[in-house]
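Re: the 348-residue chain
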Amino acid sequence: MKINRTSTTFVSLAGLGITLLIAFITMFIMILIMSDTPKDTMYYFLAGPFTNKYYFGNMLNAAIPLMLTGLGISFAFRASMFNLGGEGQVYIGGLAAASVCLALPDLTGIIGIPLSLAAAISAGAAVAGLSGYFKFKWRTDELISSFLISNALIFIVDNIITGVLQDPESSLLTSHKIAEQYWFLKIFPPSNLDISIVFIVLLAFLAYFYLFKTHQGYEMRICGLNSEFARYGGLDVRKYFLLPMVLSGGFHGLAGGVTVMGTQHMLFKGFSGGMGWNGIAVALIAKNNPIGVIPAALFFAYLEAGAKSAMINADITIEIASVVQAVVFYLITAQAIYSFVQRRRRTA
């Protein structure tokens, strides 16, 4: 069993290494084709995020919501639940946090910040929990229901931003700014990095402890590995249709709240920027390990920061980061599907 596990880990790490290698080769080929100064472009892409405090701090800041969405997906995937509604859950979490801040502009930050974040977590948990409840009650496929609910929510929130919450003095499609006492403390000026990164790294370790060191986390993982075995063992399998989705949605909602209160200080149309989808890739790179989510999120943030640096200092567009992220996403997803099919065959 020990040899088997070591072999599986080695194959898994080798597959991840090959995936990252292919992604960087793709990036280099694109730079060679698209750039008139490929050497400068490669330098700024690879080293740009580390050349000054502003770039480096913003890279770390971009990783914050990805850590949270990655944690949310990890919880769902560990229980073999598929939450494809992360984008809408981030959106509704941001709306809930901003609504509390805008409704209570005179509340002190000590009370207002936890209240706003609690609203964000609750909103995301309620939306994802709805898909979990449908599966719990009627065995509805949570992959489809979470995706459809998320898509509908995005349009609803967009209409609220450009309607009820629209700032008439702004030339952009944004809400009013939230009061300054709700803003998170910046820790690496002049970048946007705020103190929430400390708490979110701690949260990742707590999530790991919950999944791997508690009785409930063990039951959740057993249900994810083999629900029939868990049922014969006396576990209430239906409970783990609902709980992982609630936890997953809570993390996504928190990502929306943290983004609004830590970085943007307002709502604007499209503010989630693919956080929900990138969270899936982050979780898959991390092999659904909450601690592994930290470097995986940093890697995704690094790609985006490198592309921004190359765009500013060289002659390439930021879309190169999206292409590289897409290559990583598809290859990692293919590995995950292959592993899932192999596990199902062994179980059968």
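The first helix runs from residue 2 to 34.
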